[in-house]
Amino acid sequence: MLDKAKIGHEFPSFVVDIEKGRLRFFAKSIGETNPIYTDESAAQAAGYRTIPAPPTFMFSVDLEGPELLPILKLFDLDMGRILHGSQEFEYLGQIYAGDRITQQSRIVDIFDKKGGALEFIVQESRYTNQNNELVGTAQQTLVYRN
C-alpha cells in the first residue's frame, strides 16, 4: 500500500522559459490550426501581446522538471504498473512566449479501490509567471496497479 503520510509532500519547484518555437511545435502536435498559436502577428492582431500557449500546454511544463516523474522515486513505483487516470486544468491567466513559469507540485490525496488492487495518487501543480501571477493549476491522478 502507498504511504498516505506522503499526502502534502511538495516536490522541488523549477522554472521553465517558454519559447515561441516550443509553443508552435506544441500547437502543431495537438492539431491546433488557429494562427494565434503559431504566428506572432496573428496573435497580436487578436489582442495578445505575443504568441499564447495553447490549452493543456501546462502539462508539457511538468516534463521539464529535474526528473520525468518524481512520483516514481518518491513511492518507489514500477513504471509498468502506472496508468494515467485523469488530468484537469484551471486557467487563471495566460502563458505567453517569453514567460518564465515556475512549477510547484504536491501530493493532495492517496486512496485505493478494489480492496487495494488499484491505488490512486492525486497530484496538484501550480504555474506562476515571472510577475508572481498564478496563471493556472492542474490536477492529475495516477493509478497504480498492485
UniProtKB/TrEMBL annotation:
One Pfam family linked to the record: FAS1_DH_region
Domain FAS1-like dehydratase: 6-136
Gene3D superfamilies per the UniProt record, alphabetical: Hotdog Thioesterase
InterPro entries assigned to the protein according to its UniProt record, in alphabetical order: FAS1-like_DH_region (IPR039569), HadA-like (IPR016709), HotDog_dom_sf (IPR029069)
Official protein name in the record: MaoC family dehydratase
Species the sequence originates in: Kineobactrum sediminis
